[in-house]
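Budget justification aside, the reviewers requested a transparent look at the raw inputs and outputs of the sequence design task funded under Objective 1. We therefore reproduce one unedited record. The lines immediately below are the C-alpha cells for a 221-residue chain.
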C-alpha cells in the first residue's frame, strides 16, 4: 500500500542475520532484503559501519518513497572517514590491487569478513578485490560489472541473509546479460540456530574462512 499511495516512509531493521548470535533464529531477520526489494520504487540501504549508517539515515530522510535501512548488531570497525561522501545507487571499491583475480561483494557484517578474506588470500598470492554496494536497491551495476571484468569475471557474493531475493540475486540479475561474468553466491542456506556469532558465520558458510575456501575453489575451475 505504501508503494501504491506513493508514501514517503523509512524503516530500519536491526539484529539482522545469524550474526546476532545467541538470540537465536526467532530473532534473526534473514528475508528482509528480499521483502523490501520487491516493493516498486523502494530503496534498500545496507551500511557496513557507523559512518555509512549515519549517511544512510540522512539519505533515507531525503529520498522519496519507501526506504529500508538494514543495520547489524555486532560492533564493527570503522571503514570510512567521517567526511566520505555517499549516494543512493553508488557503491564503494574498498580493496584492490593490480593483480586481483576475483571480486568479493559483501555488505554489513560480511563486508568485514570479505576484507579479512582478502587479506588471507593475499598471503597465498591471490588478489581479491572487495566492493561495498551500500545500496542493494538500486545497485551500482556499473561498478560491479567494471571490476568483475577486470578480475576475469569471477565474482563471489556473501550475505547474512537467505539465498532468495538478497544481495547475491541482486548481483546475479545485474550481470545476467554479461556472458563473461560468473557469480558464486554464499548465503545462509538453512534455518539457523543459537550460538556465538563467529561460530554461526562459519557454520552457515559466510565467514572469512568460507570465503577464502570458495575463492580458491573458484580459481581451480
Amino acid at each position: 500500500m505504501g508503494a501504491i499511495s506513493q508514501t514517503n516512509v523509512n524503516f530500519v531493521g536491526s539484529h539482522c542475520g545469524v550474526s546476532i548470535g545467541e538470540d537465536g533464529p526467532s530473532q534473526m531477520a534473514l528475508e528482509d532484503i528480499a521483502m523490501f526489494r520487491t516493493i516498486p520504487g523502494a530503496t534498500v540501504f545496507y551500511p557496513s559501519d557507523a559512518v555509512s549508517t549515519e549517511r544512510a539515515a540522512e539519505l533515507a530522510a531525503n529520498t522519496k518513497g519507501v526506504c529500508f535501512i538494514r543495520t547489524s548488531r555486532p560492533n564493527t570497525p570503522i571503514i570510512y572517514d567521517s567526511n566520505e561522501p555517499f549516494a543512493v545507487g553508488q557503491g564503494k571499491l574498498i580493496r584492490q590491487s593490480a593483480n586481483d583475480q576475483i571480486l568479493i561483494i559483501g555488505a554489513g557484517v560480511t563486508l568485514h569478513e570479505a576484507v579479512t578474506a582478502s587479506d588471507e588470500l593475499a598471503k597465498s598470492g591471490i588478489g581479491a578485490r572487495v566492493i561495498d554496494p551500500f545500496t542493494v536497491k538500486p545497485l551500482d551495476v556499473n561498478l560491479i560489472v567494471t571490476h568483475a571484468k577486470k578480475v576475469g569475471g569471477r565474482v563471489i557474493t556473501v550475505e547474512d541473509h537467505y539465498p532468495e531475493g538478497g544481495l547475491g540475486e541482486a548481483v546475479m540479475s545485474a550481470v545476467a546479460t554479461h556472458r563473461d561474468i560468473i557469480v558464486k553466491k554464499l548465503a545462509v542456506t538453512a534455518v539457523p540456530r543459537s550460538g556465538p556469532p563467529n561460530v554461526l558465520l562459519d557454520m552457515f558458510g559466510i565467514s572469512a574462512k568460507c570465503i577464502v575456501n570458495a575463492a580458491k575453489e573458484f580459481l581451480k575451475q
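The beta strands are 9-13, 43-45, 66-70, 92-95, 100-106, 127-132, 135-137, 154-158, 182-186. Residues 2-70 form a domain with the Rossmann fold fold (CATH 3.40.50.970). Computational costs for records of this kind are itemized in the attached budget.
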